[in-house]
Amino acid sequence: MTAASPHRTLIVDFYKRGLSTGDISKRLGVHRNTVFATICRFNQLGHLKDRTGRGRPRTVRTPAEVKAVRKKVRRNAHRSMKKMSDDMDISYTSMRRIVRKELKMTSYRATKAAILSQANKEKRLIKAKRLLAGTRKKDHLITIFSDEKLFSVEAEFNSQNHRVLATNIQQAADRGKTIHRASHPASIMVFGAVCYDGKCPLVVVDKGVKINQKYYVEDILEKHVLPWAQNHFGQKKYIFQQDGAPAHTAKMAQQWCKDHFPAFIPKDE
Hints:
The mean pLDDT is 87. Helices cover 45% and strands 12% of the residues. A five-stranded mixed beta sheet has the order 3-2-1-4-5, covered by helices on one side. It folds into three domains: 38 residues, Arc Repressor Mutant, subunit A, CATH 1.10.10; 40 residues; 129 residues, Ribonuclease H-like superfamily/Ribonuclease H (Nucleotidyltransferase, domain 5), CATH 3.30.420.10. It is of the alpha/beta class. Helix 1 crosses helix 3. It is found in: Nucleus. This is Tc1-like transposase DDE domain-containing protein.
């Protein structure tokens, strides 16, 4: 496509003042043919805008292609733009433009969620409202949030995004293209607890130990969490929170928390 003359406005302005084609050409340093064509164009159209349809016509993002993509999405919204571009024999870039610019759509990553019964939904709603009401009373500022985490001691690996740059396959192999994974890699279990203005020292669970209610109460809560909480909060009230792991919801653990913490969130709440 031939670019529009950057002097179009000045040429028309001098023409309106009554300057000749030769004078305008000398003043602006442009060819007489350009000046003449610009003036003729202005006399025909009456304005300085580009003509309708200026430029190379679209060959991919045509109404027919946009309609075809729209139909595909309506039939099934769970579609890959890369796969659609391959199926329709158009470039991935053109497909993205059709989806984003023509259809005004965005590709969102699908997420997983648990299937909840109506009773579970109502129960969660009650819990959420109770927790929200607690934030209005600043309960979240005196709550100890706790959890365990199992860390695997092995190289990080993501099959989609892990790449090795090399000039050939042999060099890629030498640079660690293959990452070996063990069936049962070495791991370590760590317990942690934090609050608004402090954190309990991490508790490393002994190797090979499964956290049951007895170990959880005697070796984690009694030895580490309770002494830290008493030292950190002093005589102030605080709330202990834990998740729904079996060792946490067991009767022994629930009763111990009720007897030793000023307040805690029981399993039913």
